[in-house]
Amino acid sequence: MSARPPVFRFAPSPNGRLHLGHAYSALLNAEMAGRMHGRLLVRIEDIDPTRCRPDLAEAMLADLRWLGLRFEEPVRRQSEHLATYAAALASLQARGLVYPCLCSRREIAQASIGRDPDGAPLYPGTCRGRADLAARLAAGTPHAWRLDMRAARAACPEPLCVHTADAAGTPGRRPAEPERWGDAVLGRKDVPTSYHLAVVLDDAAQGVTHVVRGQDLDAATDLHRLLQRLLGLPSPRYHHHALLRDPDGEKLAKSRGSPSLADLRAQGVTADDIRRRLGFA
Ligand code: GLU
């Protein structure tokens, strides 16, 4: 019997148009999938109702098709799976591995005990065992759910490692240090998940074997590895590629005015031009 083909995925958030950085990531996924006789999926990561829009998701899929990407349909949309994420959150709650957090951004910034790998304030655990918690929850105060990192590490104390693959697919591994994220948010105040929880559940649900994404998500993988262990999920191999930068050395971003693929197309740039420019000719 032949081995199952590897499964790759490109997972954009539809909060703007795709730019060259996204195109590089998508094309690298496609190239690695092609070289390894694998499958390519696209997943729309639209859990954030304040920033994501269905028309932007459609525009992203159209841009990817214009770029010549072939991916399987139907495309998974995270907003259609909130009940699955809520169930996983409830299972962590039943095991005492998450706790409700009522704090505002401002309170967290003021009480912070350092920075997480993304540079955001580390949560000091204010709401863990807070005296007025039950009364505030009963009164309907909006709350997030945070991983209790100490309890999580006690539940799975063994060393963790991230399985990696380089761009040629050669396997490797490195130690994971999820503690650097502290009591990370797993359920937001407005949706019953966070990026970290949804991404590990979806990668498992879709049978993803290879996660190829930007270097900016490398550190988050340590937390993903812990969540996979806590939830009994398989762990894919990870390849984090260098980010494309603008001439000032800043990473490309919609917020910094990097041209979108749609802008480039309107200027007469072709999909072949983009593939060549990104090294995929
Ligand atoms: N949705 C994330 C983004 O657009 C990528 C998540 C991932 O590849 O794990 O930055």
What is the fold's blueprint, element by element?
Elements: E1 7-10, H1 20-35, E2 39-44, H2 54-66, E3 76-77, H3 82-94, E4 98-101, H4 105-111, H5 133-138, E5 144-147, H6 149-155, E6 160-165, E7 171-176, E8 185-187, H7 195-205, E9 210-214, H8 220-231, E10 237-241, H9 261-266, H10 271-277
Parallel strand pairs: 1-2, 1-9, 2-3, 9-10
Antiparallel strand pairs: 4-5, 5-8, 6-7
Helix pairs in contact: 7-8
Bound molecules: glutamic acid (GLU).
Written as H for each helix and E for each strand, in order along the chain, the element string is: EHEHEHEHHEHEEEHEHEHH
Number of domains: 2
Helix content: 25-40%
Number of continuous helical runs? 10
Bound molecules: glutamic acid
Strand count, sense and barrel status of the largest sheet are:
5 strands, parallel
What's the CATH class of the largest domain, please? Alpha Beta
Strand portion, in percent? 15-25%
Q: At CATH's second level, what is the architecture of the largest domain?
A: 3-Layer(aba) Sandwich
Radius of gyration: 20 Å
Mean pLDDT equals 95
Separation, N- and C-terminal Cα atoms? 34 Å
**Structural class by SSE content:** alpha/beta
Walk across the major sheet and give the strand order: 3-2-1-9-10
| Total number of beta strands | 10
Low-confidence stretches: none
Q: Write out the CATH superfamily name of the largest domain.
A: HUPs
- State the shape: globular
